[in-house]
């Protein structure tokens, strides 16, 4: 379905009903009790520890298997903390206005604008998650 700037994808099987909409910063409504990938019950509220971390990092790589595993492990661990914070891989093309601002014994330091900022989600009253609006933020990079 396509309604103006809203795109909806509805996937229904014998076991699941998943409704995803990207209107106004991506709303995800999930109304099933099993993972839509492995069909096993969620290990926590709307979280499949076996599948979700892999889906979050699907389609990208840092080029270093050890680094990819480390980032994936922070995603696993995020569900065990109060704040659900985790590392994410950010491709270099997501940074603009990159300028060297210093040099140290181990690396050069750069300032940059991260055009889409970090992924943050708010839990809605109905149990779905809504991605917060992204905005550019200034960051420091070491290289």
Per DSSP, the total helix count is 2
Q: How far apart are the termini?
A: 44 Å
Parts with pLDDT < 50 across at least 5 consecutive residues: 5-31
The SSE string, one letter per element, is EEEEHHEEEEE
Strand arrangement in the largest pleated sheet: 1-2-3-4-8-7
User: Radius of gyration from the CA trace?
Assistant: 18 Å
* Overall pLDDT metric: 68
Structural class based on helices, strands and sheet pairing: alpha+beta
* Helix content estimate: 10-25%
Largest sheet, described in full? Answer: 6 strands, antiparallel
Provide the domain count: 1
Give the overall shape, derived from the CA principal axes. extended
Give the tally of β-strands: 9
Structure description:
This protein has one domain (36-142). The chain has two helices and nine strands; from the N terminus they run ββββααβββββ. It has helices at residues 52-57, 65-78; strands spanning 2-3, 6-12, 17-21, 27-30, 95-103, 108-114, 121-123, 129-131, 137-142. A six-stranded antiparallel β-sheet has the order 1-2-3-4-8-7, with no helix packed on it. A three-stranded antiparallel β-sheet has the order 5-6-9, with no helix packed on it. β2 and β3 form a beta hairpin. The chain is extended, with a radius of gyration of 18 Å. The chain has 143 residues and is of the alpha+beta class. This is Protein kinase domain-containing protein. It comes from Rhizophagus irregularis (strain DAOM 197198w) (Glomus intraradices).
């Amino acid at each position: 379905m396509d309604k103006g700037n809203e795109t909806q994808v509805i996937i229904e099987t014998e076991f699941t009903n998943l409704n995803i909409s990207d209107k106004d910063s991506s709303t995800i409504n999930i109304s099933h009790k099993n993972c839509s990938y492995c069909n096993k019950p969620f290990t926590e509220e709307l979280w499949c520890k076996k599948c979700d971390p892999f889906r979050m990092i699907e389609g990208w790589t840092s080029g270093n298997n050890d680094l990819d595993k480390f980032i994936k492990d922070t995603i696993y661990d995020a569900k065990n903390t109060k704040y659900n914070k985790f590392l994410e891989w950010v491709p270099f093309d997501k940074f603009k206005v990159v300028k060297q601002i210093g040099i140290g014994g181990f690396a050069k330091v750069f300032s940059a604008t991260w055009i889409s900022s970090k992924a943050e989600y708010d839990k809605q009253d109905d149990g779905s998650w809504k991605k917060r609006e992204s905005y550019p933020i200034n960051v420091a990079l070491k290289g």
